[in-house]
UniProtKB/TrEMBL annotation:
This is Cytochrome b-c1 complex subunit Rieske, mitochondrial. The gene is UQCRFS1. It comes from Trichonephila inaurata madagascariensis. One of its GO terms (molecular function) is metal ion binding. It comes from the Eukaryota. Residues 203-271 form the Rieske domain. The Rieske protein is a high potential 2Fe-2S protein.
Length: 273
């Protein structure tokens, strides 16, 4: 016989039921047994968020204990023990004292520094001078070449009124023993009428001796001595005439014959070069 449970709490849920199942004997669910080993549930993944990191930080004071004594561990943030370099070893005694007036010794200290710089500069200049001298000397001509750069002329072998030709540095060298008439004639010339104005006194150290390089200033030919319209030198290449002082008087040559450097070592010895 069917039995209905008379319960006001259940009546509301059973009003729409068309069929009511009575009590059934026996187990509705099959029996089962739990496993002997416990079930392991995996941990949740760790979320590295600012909140999780801050929650895991240590809070409050830290304590350290060793040997049964517990004390507070302090963290030093003020670095007052930083060591700074001391340059007192390199400073002068006059400026080591912070209470002294350094202006009183300023001039002395400057003069000392200037004197040391000047001494060092002189030493450097002397060393540079020796170095440059050796370098330039190595680039110069050898002793045998310098010996050929000079020529010695015996003036006693040249008669008056004659011209002798020598070879000097690969060029012809004219040495003329002039007469008194030639000297007076050349010194009486008005230099304002010359193409290359030059006085005879400026071309001859001694009036009776004339020293010239025998190369025409036009195109480099060798003039002939003792000929020409002016009794001096004549260039047969293009017709340039020079007087007895080597000055251009006629023809295409623009300049006078060159006078080389020379000196008289004795009354009868001439050194050219």
């Amino acid at each position: 016989m069917y039995k209905l449970v008379k319960n006001t709490n259940i009546n509301n849920f059973c009003k729409v039921s068309k069929q009511v199942i009575g009590s059934v004997g026996g187990d509705v669910v099959d029996p089962f047994s739990l496993p002997e080993k416990p079930i392991q549930v995996p941990d949740l993944p760790l979320k590295l968020t600012p909140y999780s990191l801050s929650s895991g930080a240590l809070k409050g004071q830290l304590f350290a204990q060793a040997g049964g004594i517990r004390g507070v561990a302090q963290v030093r943030h003020a670095h007052t023990d930083v060591q700074y370099p001391d340059f007192d070893y390199y400073r002068r005694k006059e400026v080591k004292d912070p209470t002294s007036n350094t202006r009183a010794t300023e001039e002395y200290r400057k003069v000392t520094g200037y004197m040391m710089m000047a001494a060092g500069g002189l030493g450097a200049a002397y060393a540079a001078k020796n170095t440059v001298t050796k370098f330039v000397a190595s680039m110069g001509a050898a002793a045998d070449v310098l010996a050929l750069a000079k020529i010695e002329v015996n003036l006693g072998e040249i008669p008056e009124g004659k011209n002798m030709t020598f070879k000097w540095r690969g060029k012809p060298l004219f040495v003329r023993h002039r007469t008194q008439d030639e000297i007076q004639k050349e010194r009486a010339v008005n230099i304002s009428n010359l193409r290359d104005p030059q006085a005879d006194e400026d071309r001859a150290q001694k009036p009776e001796w004339l020293v010239l390089i025998g190369v025409c200033t036009h195109l480099g030919c060798v003039p002939l001595p003792g000929v020409g319209d002016y009794g001096g030198y004549f260039c047969p290449c293009h017709g340039s005439h020079y007087d007895a002082s080597g000055r251009i008087r006629k023809g295409p040559a623009p300049l006078n014959l060159e006078v080389p450097p020379y000196e008289y070592t004795t009354d009868t010895t001439l050194v050219v070069g």
